[in-house]
From TrEMBL:
<dbReference type="InterPro" id="IPR036186">
    <property type="entry name" value="Serpin_sf"/>
</dbReference>
<dbReference type="Pfam" id="PF00079">
    <property type="entry name" value="Serpin"/>
</dbReference>
<feature type="domain" description="Serpin">
    <location>
        <begin position="64"/>
        <end position="537"/>
    </location>
</feature>
<dbReference type="InterPro" id="IPR000215">
    <property type="entry name" value="Serpin_fam"/>
</dbReference>
<dbReference type="GO" id="GO:0045861">
    <property type="term" value="P:negative regulation of proteolysis"/>
</dbReference>
<keyword id="KW-0722">Serine protease inhibitor</keyword>
<feature type="signal peptide">
    <location>
        <begin position="1"/>
        <end position="18"/>
    </location>
</feature>
<keyword id="KW-0732">Signal</keyword>
<keyword id="KW-0646">Protease inhibitor</keyword>
<dbReference type="InterPro" id="IPR042178">
    <property type="entry name" value="Serpin_sf_1"/>
</dbReference>
<comment type="similarity">
    <text>Belongs to the serpin family.</text>
</comment>
<dbReference type="GO" id="GO:0005615">
    <property type="term" value="C:extracellular space"/>
</dbReference>
<dbReference type="GO" id="GO:0004867">
    <property type="term" value="F:serine-type endopeptidase inhibitor activity"/>
</dbReference>
<dbReference type="InterPro" id="IPR023796">
    <property type="entry name" value="Serpin_dom"/>
</dbReference>
<protein>
    <recommendedName>
        <fullName>Serpin domain-containing protein</fullName>
    </recommendedName>
</protein>
<dbReference type="InterPro" id="IPR042185">
    <property type="entry name" value="Serpin_sf_2"/>
</dbReference>
């Protein structure tokens, strides 16, 4: 969750809403640009797969980077760390959507998008394909599994948000835009936000704000993730018992006991001689999502921290992909984890500094700020004057806005200049007229999500564009809260308990009674949903 405090607007949407839009043919496009048609390139499966792989890889890199930064900042060595990288990615994507300049560059770097994607010229492509990944994550063939990723933008009642930003956030990320009153009734605003999070997490997280935000808060961006699934091979019912847990390694005395669950069967397993660790996969029903557990050799709190500091994204993917079905008898802690993390200092450590600086942050695409709210451009004023009916404005059917899929002709870009008197890009008889309705409509869907937004983004990305003043918004906090409940979940294997747990030498033993790390990964997209580093499972009980 992000607190964005302080101030600024010039809406582009009215210019698009009241005209007909003509999209040139590929032959017409050649007159405007010598580059390849991005829309045609984007249509190839290979291109889409490449972009989604970059996003997924960036998500894993972000998980590792956040984990390492949190380890360095931990108040004590034995603190558990659990967070949801994909939830952080969605929140950052909403910031990226509204960012310009240095802030835009830093957010894209932290998200791992700097390599492999022309993020400056094709930022909308990233948002579109992240949306594709989110759709795949939430689509499941198992009715018992549920994954919900929700985001919302809470805005001060009288604070202006750019229409284009609002509509894009709604249509790509399904973000809700909710008006609140931080200025006069901050307690009610806090209650509304906590209620939103509680509803989206089905009551598991009832409060994400422990105290009300300051009354100068203008915007809060929130992202919530709820995940519930049954194990493909449930732990044995009735076999859970208290066992010692060795925080300082098996060679040191155990200082606590935990509820240890038991299971046996064939699970994805791999032992890496180079990294000196073991990894075991616990698939969820349907095998679409898996929890991977990694235990370093001779593990202890100190050894785990050392191991994690050298782990790379390539290591993580290779370890998971190297597992093979193996007969295993295992013990794993029953856990209930509830953590709250302020990621502000973590993100600053990772290079995202300008977002938290009142003098450097630039979220000009999110809002024009209060100073510009009452100062519409000449182009929009001229447009408003031409409206006889605000719902169904009059227009001349010969007047058509011309947009190029790969670039603007010179006179088109002038519409967005501060002192421009241009009312349209170009006039034509327009044999191919496409009525622009609104984002997401059947008629306008391809227009809004692929052509129009790419063009507008290109104009907005021009640093010399005078219309896009820095509104003075900056982030005050990044609050991230996770609740996780890991249980036996099922009794199907109870009848074969004695056979599954027999130690006849053909099955290896995987005892998770020392510090370990885990991550939950969606197999199709290789997206890490949750990441955890556990040195003291909770709940735990002092050893007598």
């Amino acid at each position: 969750m992000m607190y964005l405090t302080a101030t600024v607007i010039l809406s582009l949407l009215p210019i698009l809403n009241s005209q007909y839009i003509h999209f040139p043919t590929d032959q017409e496009n050649e007159a405007f640009s010598s580059t390849a048609d991005l829309a045609a390139l984007r249509g190839t499966p290979e291109y889409g797969m490449q972009i989604e792989q970059i996003i997924s890889t960036g998500n894993t890199k972000l998980a590792l980077a956040v984990n390492k930064a949190l380890l360095q900042q931990a108040s004590r060595e034995n603190d558990n760390i659990v967070f949801a990288p994909v939830s952080v990615t969605v929140a950052l994507a909403l910031v990226l959507l509204g960012a310009k300049g240095k802030t835009f560059e830093e957010v894209s770097n932290v998200m791992g998008l700097a390599a492999g994607v022309d993020i400056q010229g094709k930022s909308l492509v990233v948002h579109e394909h992240l949306n594709n990944i989110l759709k795949k994550l939430t689509k499941t063939t198992d009715s018992n599994q549920k994954l919900t990723i929700a985001s919302a933008i809470f805005v001060q009642n009288d604070y202006p948000i750019r229409s284009l930003y609002k509509q894009t956030a709604k249509n790509i990320y399904k973000s809700e835009v909710l008006n609140v009153d931080f200025k006069h009734d901050v307690n009610k605003a806090t209650q509304l936000m906590n209620a939103w999070v509680s509803e989206r997490t089905e009551g598991k997280i009832t409060s994400v704000l422990s105290e009300p935000p300051i009354d100068t808060t203008k915007v809060i961006i929130a992202s919530a993730l709820y995940f519930k699934a049954l194990w493909e091979h449930p732990f044995f019912d009735g076999m859970t018992a208290r066992k010692p847990f060795y925080t300082n390694g098996r060679n040191a005395p155990a200082t606590m006991e935990v509820e240890m669950m038991a299971n046996g069967g064939f699970f994805p397993y791999y032992k890496d001689p180079n990294l000196k660790c073991e990894i075991l996969g616990l698939p969820y029903r349907g095998n679409e999502t898996t929890m991977y557990v990694i235990v370093p050799s001779s593990s202890s709190a100190a050894r785990l921290k050392e191991f994690e500091s050298s782990l790379t994204q390539e290591n993580v993917d290779r370890l998971a992909d190297s597992t093979v079905s193996t007969g295993v008898v295992m013990l794993f802690p029953k856990m209930k984890i509830d953590t709250t993390i302020n990621l502000k200092e973590v993100l600053k450590t990772l290079g995202l500094r300008s977002l938290f600086s009142p003098s450097e942050a630039n979220l000009a695409l999110l809002s024009p700020g209060e100073a510009m709210a009452d100062a519409p451009s000449r182009a929009s004023l001229a447009l408003q004057a031409a409206k006889a009916n605000p719902i169904a404005p009059e227009y001349d059917r010969r007047d058509v806005l011309v947009f190029s899929r790969s670039g603007f002709p010179e006179n088109c870009s002038k519409i967005f200049d501060k002192n421009s008197t241009e009312k349209m890009c170009e006039t034509t008889d327009g044999s191919k007229k496409v009525l622009y309705k609104k984002f997401g409509d059947k008629v306008g869907r391809r227009v809004a999500k692929r052509d129009t937004l790419d063009i507008v983004r290109r104009i907005v990305d021009e640093q010399s564009s005078e219309n896009f003043h820095n509104p003075g918004l900056y982030a005050d906090q990044v609050i991230h809260k996770v609740y996780m409940d890991i249980t036996e979940t099922g009794t199907e294997a109870a009848a074969s308990t004695s056979i599954s747990l027999s130690r006849d030498g053909s099955r290896l033993t995987f005892r998770v009674d020392v510090p370990f790390l885990f991550f939950i990964r969606h197999e199709l997209t290789k997206t890490v949903l949750f990441w955890g580093s556990v040195t003291e499972p909770t709940p735990n009980f002092p050893r007598s």
